[in-house]
Amino acid sequence: RVLFRSAGTENVPAIAGMAAALKEACDNMSVNMPRVQAMRDKLIDGVLQLPEVILNGDREKRLPGNVNVSIKGIEGEALLLMLDMVGINASSGSACTSGSLDPSHVLLAIGLIHEVAHGSLRMSLSEYNTEEEVDYILEKLPGIVTRLRSMSPVWKRMQEGK
């Protein structure tokens, strides 16, 4: 069987741009990775100060800019909307379930119950983020979590030990 491909014009500017971006990323990796990891660790430490928040995944064996936590007693989608209202971009679950209202199958596979996986928050950092942005997230997130928990029947049942 012969496979035919249609001839076409390659997107040379995009190819050249990707090559330049990869070169820059590789050339600056030794400087950027530790800086991004430090911001990630500060963000994780700050978020874990909130009650009933767990880190999803290993603390050390994770990508430099990856933060994924589950915040018990709240709905991930509501959290994302409130974060967006204050200018914070995040997602719920894992990248492979973005756009879905179902909790991440990855989080369920690592043993989280449905209600906890549904309250997951994923934030990604890069070399373009700043310490001030991490501080801003840590300033805004506690109030949002408190507000959402005050409206949450799941949180109320948790507080009652049910």
Topology:
Layout: H1 12-27, H2 29-47, E1 53-55, E2 66-71, H3 76-85, H4 105-109, H5 114-117, E3 120-124, H6 131-150, H7 153-159
Helix pairs in contact: 2-6, 3-6
Verbal overview:
- The chain has a 3-stranded antiparallel beta sheet with strand order 1-2-3.
- Helix 2 packs parallel to helix 6 and helix 3 (76-85) crosses helix 6.
- The chain is globular, with a radius of gyration of 20 Å.
- Helix content is 50%, strand content 9%.
- It has 162 residues and is mainly α.
- It has helices at residues 12-27, 29-47, 76-85, 105-109, 114-117, 131-150, 153-159, and strands at 53-55, 66-71, 120-124.
- The relative contact order is 0.15.
- It contains 7 helices and 3 strands, in the order H-H-E-E-H-H-H-E-H-H.
Query: Structural class of the secondary elements?
Result: mainly alpha
H and E string: HHEEHHHEHH
Radius of gyration, rounded?
Answer: 20 Å
Strands in their spatial order, largest beta sheet: 1-2-3
Percent helix range:
40-55%
Mean pLDDT: 87
Largest sheet: 3 strands, antiparallel
Residue share in β-strands? 5-15%
Q: Count of DSSP helices? A: 7
Low-confidence stretches: none
Q: Which features characterize this protein?
A:
single chain; 162 residues; mainly alpha; three-stranded antiparallel β-sheet; 7 helices; 3 strands
